[in-house]
Every structure is written in C-alpha cells, then in structure tokens.
Design a protein that fits this description.
Layout (H helix, E strand, L loop, with lengths): L21 H13 L6 E3 L3 E3 L17 H20 L5 H28 L4 H21 L9 H28 L8 H26 L7 H20 L10 H33 L8 H24 L8 H25 L1 H27 L13 H18 L5 H16 L17 H24 L23 H4 L11 H13 L3 H25 L6 H19 L7 H8 L4 H17 L7 H19 L7
Antiparallel strand pairs: 1-2
C-alpha cells in the first residue's frame, strides 16, 4: 500500500507490527493513510512509531503494566518470600546459594518481562505460553525449599534445570509465534530470528545440564546456571540496544523495574513484621518478666527508617523513563540486577539485628540468673551463723532449677539431644567431691575434677545460650571460635563480660565460662554483620549509580559534591565490615546496639543532602551576603554607621 506525501514513511506493510488484532490494525492503517502528520505517529491503545526506511520499529507501548504482568509479579513475590523464610544464611556457602537463587529468579523474571513490555498481546497461544511461565514459577518454589548446593537434593536440582529449559523454550516459542503472525508485515526479521536462536540455544543447554547433573550429582555444574543467567542478561540487553526493532526505549520497562523494587522493599517490611512477632513471642507471651529496652526500640525504629529512606532515595532520584540516553538507559536496566540482589540481602540481614539485640539481652539476663543461683550454692550460710563450706549437692541443686526453667522457656533446636547433654552434665557435676571446692585455686586446669566441673558448666551454659539463640532464629554458623581467654572484655557493656561476684568470694570460673559461651554465640552472627554492612554500602553506591545514569539536568558543583559525598559514605559503610577481621573487635561491636542505627543514619544523611539547597541559596547565607553587601555600600558612601 502506498501513502501520499513525500515526507511520509513508505512500505508501511513492512513495519514491525504488534499483534493487536485485525480490526485494530485495519483501523490504524486507515488513519495512517489519511494522516498528514509528518511524524506518522499512531495511537491505538499502544503508541506506534514509524522510523526511517532502513530500521522500522513498532513495539507494543502501553501506559502501564497489564493485568497479566501484575499477576506474574505475585508469583515472584511468593517465591521470594518463601525462599527468604526457609533459607537461613549461616555460612559462606548458604550466602552464595542465596545470591544464586535470587539471580536465577530475577533473570527469569526479566527475560519474561522484556517480551511482555515489547510484544505483550493477548491470544490463545500467548495465554498457553504464559501458563508455562507460571509453571516455571512453581518450579522455583519447589527448588527454593531445598536450594542448597552443599547438600544437593538431586531430583530437585535436575527439575530446576528442566524448569529453566521450559522458561527459555516458552520465550523462544512466543517470539516465533509473533514472527509467524506478522510475517507479512515484518521488514526486519533478523532481530526476531536472533532472539529465537538465543532462547533456543540456552533452552537446549539447560536441558543438557539437567541430565549431566543426574549423572554427576556432586559436580558444581549448578554454577553454570549462574554464568548462563548473567550471559543471557547481557546478551538480550545488548541485542535490544543494537537492534532498533527490539528496542526497550519507549516501553514501560522502567515502571516494571520500579515495581520490582517496591516488591523487594515490601519483602523487607514483611521480614520486619516477622521479627517483631518473634520479639513479642519471646518477651510477653513467655512472660519473661522483661520489657523492650530503649536500645531495642531504637533498633526497630532504625529498621523502619531505613526502609522508608531507601524508598525515598530510589524514587526521588529516578526518572520515570529510566536512563537519560540510549546507552545510559540500558546500563540503568542492567544495574538493577546487582541492586536488587544486594537490596534483598540488606533487608534480610539488616532486620536480623533486631532479634540479635533482643537475644543478647536475654542471654545477659540468663547469665545473671545462673550467676545468682550459683552464688547461693557457693555461699550457703545459716541465719546468724558463719558461712558453711561449699557442698556439691547444694551447687547442683541451685543450678538445676534455673537451667530447667530457661530451657523450657527457650527450647533448643535439637531439644532431645540438648536435654540429654544437660542431664549428663549435672550427673558428672554431682560426682565432684565436696573437698574439691576448698582447694579449687590450687588445682591445675588439667586435673580430672577441675576439667569435669568446667566441662559440665560449659555444657550447661552453652545449652542455655543456644536455646535462646534458637528461639530468636539465630542458627549455628561455621565460623572461627576464639580460644578461651583470648578476648579483651574491658569497656564492654554487658554484665556477662564485666560483672564480678558481688562478694569477694570465689565464683569458680563461672563468669569466664559464660563469657566464652557468649563469644561462641556471637560468632554465629558475624557473617550477618559482614554481609549486612557490605550490602548496605553497595546498595547506597548503586543508588547513586542509578541516579547518575538517569540524571537529565546539568550538574552543578554542589550536585557533584553531594554525589561524591554519598559515594564516599557508601564505601565507608562497606569498609565497616573489616572489623570482622578481629574476633575481639567483632565481639565488642556486636555487644553495642549501633549496627542498624549507623546504617540508617548514613542513608538519612544522604536523603537530607538530596533536599538541601546549594549553599548560596540558604536563608542564613543570603542574609549574611546581603548584610555584607549593604555594609560595603555604606562604606563607599562614607556612612559613619557602616561598621555597626
């Protein structure tokens, strides 16, 4: 069909059409023939643009996400929430597997989304393929509950690879359907054929990996998923950037990424609510007799403030159309992958500081209870009489009641095994002769009786502390445990480390045993401390990167200063994790309530700088400047009051 007018685009039958139904296409073509607009812009629920003769592009543009896209996001939310609930980060292996799962989930979501934002149309075959994508999300839910490369459930890992294969095959099929239905109107078929080829190659590859994992169950072949996902992201983003018909510019991909950011922040809010529920359960419901301390309330407020501040920084700094230029836009899209992964880790780890603070307060209270009970056994005396000699049965009886009460309130993770160990410890302790207490200081540490006392005491104290840790979802970690007596406790704030017996009598190494058990407990949290601060710095750095890529106005020196200051703050936050190189300093820092408030305050400073006007625009500075100008003017006119 020809179109009159020398400046109009010809050969419109070869434009890359979005499959929107015959009636819509015929009506649009009729309006196209009668149009005198030199830009040849069609709007039919979608905005369709005619480019130059060589590269014509027509992608399906809408004002917002479709109902299907929002429904698909619900499945992403469900998978993310389920995975973060069941996947505890206890060592480096589980940390990397956490990141790997989020990488696979995010990449699958992204590849599906970029098809929908460009060619998202309705139809029977399209609905069938969309059903396949939802089935893939079910596969992620199945794999998420047992996604641990160090303890591979082989059928699950094989199924995961098959689900990835189905996802890429469905995407290739969707592109093929689009190509077939518009075969008479496509000027540039090569970009679509190339996309089909990409998806087909990765689909076949994932299919092959599925059977390789079945034959080699202990190989680290699952790492191929990670490399392949990153390669797919780079490949399809670069293809969209260099292929005009498949461009992401002008689509609502920015809105989709913004919605995904909201989803992840919402996941952080869900985790925060769950942690508060754990606090309530282990405080008032168990009638522990203690209230929330001001420090704990401050940490909860910091968690809320951090989530709200990240929300404001992201949406205040972002432009609705993404990156400012062609290359900047695609970089802006790709930066969202590391941004979202680190943001998930930040909201997951940051909220852990809430339960950690309450746990160490409970541990400190339990240590005081054990010390008071033991003191009664150590220093029994009758009214009006001198102190009686220490008796083994009195010590065992004084400790047994509080230990039983604490283990009943804070049930250990392996309850049966722990109770058996505690009973054995009390039995061993009961065999200590009464004469032992009178010569305790003279006995070497290697003596049988002293070893029996210290080992039994360590077992009991560790069982109580482990029960409290388990109640607050702080699980065992593979980390370095310091040697006894290697930690300097001077200047710390907790009575476990600082309190001495209220009398000058001996405590028979009870306090030192409690201190060593506390340090062993704190080592469970060192990994959380490290990745929370590293991710806090990376998230803030990537927020500034996204802001730089979407910036459309000319940068002033003050804007450059604010950006440089924020980048330095982000680097400083990540460097705080270096404290973990010293077990001594890590333990001392974890005793303070300042971990989460420090992160929240750094983000808040960057938010304040965002709304702070340039120095010359501040009211005080303007008044001082006006006063100085007025004074200089009076000096020049010889006014005797100029110096007043």
């Amino acid at each position: 069909m020809s179109v009159p007018g020398s400046r109009r685009c010809r050969n419109t039958d070869r434009i890359l059409w979005s499959t929107y139904g015959n009636e819509h296409r015929h009506a649009a073509l009729a309006r196209l023939e009668s149009s005198d607009d030199d830009t040849r812009r069609l709007t039919m629920g979608s905005q369709l643009t005619c480019q130059d003769e060589k590269e014509k592009v027509l992608v399906h543009e809408r004002g917002g996400a479709s109902n299907y896209e929002l429904f698909y996001d619900l499945w992403f939310v469900a998978n993310l929430n389920t995975f973060t609930s069941v996947h505890e980060i206890t060592d480096k292996g589980t940390l990397f597997s956490f990141m790997g799962y989020v990488l696979l989930l995010w990449t699958t979501w992204f590849l599906t989304t970029i098809f929908d934002v460009r060619f998202g149309v309705d139809g029977t075959l399209q609905r069938i393929t969309r059903g396949a994508h939802l089935a893939v999300m079910v596969g992620f839910a199945e794999a998420g509950s047992t996604f641990n490369p160090d303890a591979q459930a082989q059928p699950v890992f094989q199924a995961m690879s098959l689900f990835l294969m189905v996802s890429r095959f469905s995407l290739g099929l969707q592109h093929a359907i689009f190509l077939f239905r518009n075969r008479g109107r496509l000027e540039q078929k090569r970009p679509l054929v190339l996309s089909i080829l990409f998806h087909s190659v990765f689909s076949i590859t994932y299919f092959g990996v599925a059977f390789y994992t079945n034959q080699n169950p202990r190989d680290n072949v699952f790492t191929f998923w990670y490399y392949a996902s990153v390669a797919e992201l780079i490949l399809h983003t670069a293809h969209a950037a260099w292929s005009r018909p498949l461009t992401l510019r002008g689509t609502h991909i920015s809105e989709r990424l913004n919605l995904l950011t909201l989803i992840i922040l919402g996941e952080g809010v869900i985790i925060l609510a769950k942690k508060v529920a754990v606090l309530v359960e282990n405080t008032w419901i168990k009638d522990s007799g203690t209230n929330w301390s001001p420090a704990l309330v401050g940490i909860i407020a910091s968690a809320v403030a951090l989530a709200y501040t990240i929300f404001q920084l992201y949406f205040d700094w972002m432009h609705e159309d993404g990156g400012s230029g062609e290359i900047a836009h695609y970089l802006w899209v790709m930066v969202h992958l590391p941004f979202h992964i680190t943001l998930v880790l930040l909201v997951e780890g940051g909220n852990q500081f809430i339960v950690w603070r309450r746990a160490i307060e409970a541990i400190d209270s339990a240590a005081e209870t054990l010390s008071s009970a033991a003191a009664k056994g150590f220093h029994q005396q009758l009214p009006g009489a001198a102190a009686a000699p220490v008796n083994t049965s009195q010590v065992v009886g004084a400790l047994r009641g509080p230990v039983t009460a604490l283990l009943s309130a804070y049930r250990p993770e392996n309850e049966t095994e722990t109770w058996a160990q505690v009973r054995e410890a009390f039995d061993n302790m009961a065999e200590i002769p009464d004469a032992f207490w009178g010569v305790y200081e003279e006995l070497p540490r290697t003596s049988l009786a002293k070893q029996r006392w210290l080992d039994s005491l360590s077992t009991i104290v560790s069982a109580v502390f482990d029960g409290i840790s388990s109640a607050f979802d702080i699980h065992e970690a593979e980390d370095e445990i310091p040697e006894p007596g290697s930690i300097d406790y001077v200047g710390t704030s907790f009575s476990i480390m600082t309190s001495q017996p209220k009398t000058q009598d001996r405590d028979f190494d009870l306090r030192s045993t409690e201190a060593e058990a506390y340090v062993a407990t704190s080592m469970k949290f060192r990994l959380v401390f490290v990745y929370a601060f590293v991710c806090a710095g990376i998230v803030l750095l990537l927020l500034h990167t996204l802001h730089l890529l979407s910036q459309r106005q000319r940068w002033t020196p003050f804007n450059a200063f604010r950006a440089a200051f924020g980048i330095m703050v982000s680097i400083g936050l990540s460097l705080v994790s270096l404290v973990a190189l010293s077990v001594d300093q890590t333990t001392r820092f974890l005793m303070t309530p300042w971990q989460l408030p420090i992160i929240a305050m750094c983000y808040f400073v960057c938010l304040v700088l965002t709304y702070l006007p340039p120095l010359k625009d501040l009211v005080v500075v303007r008044k001082i400047t006006n006063w100085l100008d007025y004074r200089n003017e009076k000096k020049q006119t010889g006014d005797p009051h100029a110096l007043v």
